[in-house]
Design goal:
The chain has 191 residues and is an alpha/beta fold. Helix content is 46%, strand content 9%. The protein has six helices and five strands, in the order βααβαβαβααβ. The protein has a five-stranded parallel beta sheet with strand order 1-2-3-4-5. β2, α3 and β3 form a beta-alpha-beta unit.
């Protein structure tokens, strides 16, 4: 049995924000707020993993926005920009240690907007940034899988399928994302 991202009946909540909300703030206040959200989400992840371990649930899919607006072109950030960023990373690593010592399998499943076969260069760049960010967190927590959507046909299925390997080749070699990626089979273009 596995759990996916969110809890309805448990007091475990992952916190989010929007780029619009962040962009209303001056940059130092943005970074302070984002650090608070990331820290809270590391704590929520640990609580989620403790719940899973205590209830015989062997896998958990981590929310794609566990680091809110991380890759947004204007509101995005690097962890070393956040106040206490190193401590936040350390807390995520503790989550990974807990998961490992309790035989919990962790994974990610980026949203449908992450499309490696897009003919739009900006969409591809955004998709690569999102996957590389998720691979970074996957390394911290020991997640072994990042599921991918195959993407759309864009009016030419053969060309779309041909772009997919090029998109995968664009993943940062150091990120480990290539070794962790699995292709999700729910897309209509897969058939």
């Amino acid at each position: 049995m596995a759990l996916c991202c969110q809890f309805v009946r448990q007091p475990i909540k992952f916190r989010v924000t929007t780029a619009t909300a962040m962009l209303r703030l001056p940059r130092p206040a943005q970074l302070e707020r984002l650090a608070e959200l990331c820290r809270a989400n590391a704590e929520a992840l640990l609580a989620a993993l403790q719940f899973c371990a205590g209830h015989g649930i062997g896998a958990f899919r981590i929310n794609s926005q566990i680091l809110p607006v991380k890759t947004h072109p204007e509101a995005g950030y690097e962890m070393n920009e956040l106040p206490g960023g190193a401590e936040i990373i350390a807390r995520f690593r503790e989550c990974g240690q807990f998961a490992g010592s309790n035989n919990l399998r962790l994974s990610f499943h980026p949203g449908q907007f992450v499309v490696l076969n897009s003919p739009n260069p900006m969409t591809l760049a955004s998709s690569l940034a999102e996957l590389n960010y998720q691979a970074e967190i996957a390394e911290w927590v020991g997640a072994d899988t990042i599921n991918l959507h195959g993407g759309g046909a864009y009016g030419d299925k053969t060309a779309a399928l041909g772009r997919f390997p090029r998109g995968v080749a664009g993943l940062a070699a150091h990120s480990g994302c290539r070794g962790q990626s699995k292709r999700a089979g729910s897309d209509q273009t897969d058939r």
